[in-house]
C-alpha cells in the first residue's frame, strides 16, 4: 500500500477580473498551501479498474470525483488501464474553499507519473491538471503563488512559510458554481489590491471579491469574519476561495481563542508551508529518505518549478 498526503490551500487574496466567453471567470488570486491534509491510501488490485471510496459520506466517490477524473485524464493520455483500490481519509472539509478535491487530483497525477515511470515535467502535468479543475495546477507546485486566468497561469512567489493561521468552518457546503452564477461584476477597471500587496507586503489591504456574494447567500460566513476581526488581533481575515471557510493570521497568544469564540463550528490552527517543504511532503522532491512514492524519486527532480508556468 502507498499512503499519500494531500494538503489544503487558502486564498490570501482573490479578485475577479472579468467573465470569459466560455462562461468561466478570469481571476487573480494568491494561493498559499497550509499543513492541513487528507490522506490517500492506494493498493494495486490487478483489475484494470479504479475502486474509489472514503470516510466522508457527503461526497460522491463515482466518476465525477476529482480523483477519478485525474486517473481518467492521465491513463487516457497514455492508453493505460490502471487498477487500484483508493481510500481517502478526508480532513479537508468539502465545500470549504480549501481545495481538497483539487489537491487530491494533483497528488494522484504525481503518483501516476512516478508509478508508470513517465517522467513528465511539471509543465506537462499542469496541462493535464488544468483540464481537471481550475485549482489543480497550483497543487503541483504549492507554496505561495499568483494564479491568473482560470488558475492555469502560475507565477511562483517568495514563500510565506511558517505563519500561524486560524480557520473556522461552519457546517455548510458552499458550491463554487452557485457563487459564480450569482456574482455581479463591478463595472470599470479597479486597481488590483494583489498587485499593491506584492509591492508593499501589507496583508491588511487584501480582499476576496467573492465574499459579498457568499455572505449574502450564507450570512453565517459573514458573521464568522466579523467576529474574528472584533476578537482576534490579526493582520488578515478573509474567506478562502468561494467559502465556507474563513481564516485569519494568528499570534501565539490568540491561538486558543478560536474554539471559545466558535464552539459549534470546526476550528483549526494550521501553518503555511513553503514550496520545497510542500513538494517533499507530497513526495515530489528527494528528501534524503525513501519517498512515499518509492525509493527512486530522482526522476522528480526535473519537476522542480521555474518562475512561471503557462498552459
Describe the model.
- This protein has 311 residues and is α+β, with helices and mostly antiparallel strands.
- The chain folds into two domains: 2-159 and 274-294, 2-Layer Sandwich (Ribosomal Protein S5, domain 2), CATH 3.30.230.10; 164-271, GHMP kinase, C-terminal domain (Alpha-Beta Plaits, 2-Layer Sandwich).
- 27% of the residues lie in helices and 26% in strands.
- The protein contains nine helices and eleven strands.
- The chain has helices at 66-78, 100-115, 122-130, 176-181, 193-200, 211-217, 219-231, 257-261, 275-281; strands at residues 2-19, 25-44, 50-54, 84-89, 144-149, 153-156, 164-169, 237-239, 246-249, 266-271, 308-309.
- Strands 1, 2, 3, 4, 5, 6 and 11 form a seven-stranded mixed beta sheet that branches. Strands 8-9-7-10 form a four-stranded antiparallel beta sheet, covered by helices on one side.
- Helix 1 (66-78) runs parallel beside helix 2 and helix 6 crosses helix 7.
- It is globular and about 55 Å long.
